[in-house]
Write a structure and sequence with these properties.
Layout lengths: L2 H24 L6 H8 L3 H7 L3 H28 L4 H15 L1 H10 L5 H22 L7 H23 L5 H22 L3
Helix pairs in contact: 1-6, 4-5, 4-6, 4-7, 5-8, 5-9, 7-8, 8-9
InterPro entries: DNA-bd_HTH_TetR-type_CS (IPR023772), Homeodomain-like_sf (IPR009057), HTH-type_TetR-like_transc_reg (IPR050109), HTH_TetR (IPR001647)
Pfam families: TetR_N (PF00440)
Keywords: DNA-binding
């Protein structure tokens, strides 16, 4: 990559981060494209060149988060390959991702409803794939099916994706917060899944 291309890429990432911070601070619906462009240091026309609408920008931010969530499952697979349980590794990966991308979690939780029906449907499929992969990883022999399986995946995903933000906002030391999250989740999840396996 040339120096100019690297600079353009870093400028774009910096502008995306600024846009995300503005959305998180004010709320997606309260930010106009003109305000967004001024906040990230672009003209409105230049911003439209990158994103046809602010919905497209929000969609990209949330989709990127969902792809990162899918990648957290790799940590569980690596733990299994080393002969260790997957769930503690998955919990730690979610904790770290939340520390790195807290604003994106906030946007995904609060502003998903601002996307078009088509965008929401596409993200719902990505989220379902993540939840199914999560269950397959931590409870490969579950006897749950149908609505119970779907509800379990949704609940497990919600706990993993919301608990870090709540705990990280309580003034706990990093390692203390992670240990508390593991303590809260491991017992309850493992017991629930143990009762639902063959």
């Amino acid at each position: 990559m040339s120096a100019n291309a690297a600079l353009r890429c870093s400028n774009f990432d910096e502008r995306r981060d600024k846009a995300m911070a503005l959305f998180a601070a004010k709320g997606f619906g309260q930010v106009s494209m003109r305000e967004l462009a001024a906040h990230v240091g672009l003209t409105a026309g230049s911003l439209y060149h990158h994103f046809p609408s602010k919905q497209d920008l929000l969609y990209d931010l949330i989709e990127e988060l969902y792809e990162e969530l899918q990648a957290t499952l790799d940590q569980g697979r690596k733990a299994l390959a080393r002969g260790k349980p997957a769930l503690p590794a998955v919990i730690a990966a979610h904790w770290q991702l939340h520390a790195e991308r807290g604003l994106q979690f906030r946007l995904a939780e609060r502003d998903l409803c601002c996307l078009s029906d088509e965008q929401q449907a596409r993200l719902a499929l990505v989220r379902l794939r993540y939840q199914a992969g999560l269950l397959k990883l931590v409870a490969p022999q579950t006897r749950l099916s149908g609505p119970a399986l779907t509800a379990t995946g949704q609940a497990l995903g919600a706990l993993l994706n919301q608990l870090p933000g709540w705990l990280q906002g309580r003034g706990l030391a990093e390692d203390e917060g992670l240990r508390l999250m593991q303590s809260l989740l491991l017992g309850g999840i493992e017991r629930t899944l143990k009762d639902a396996v063959i």
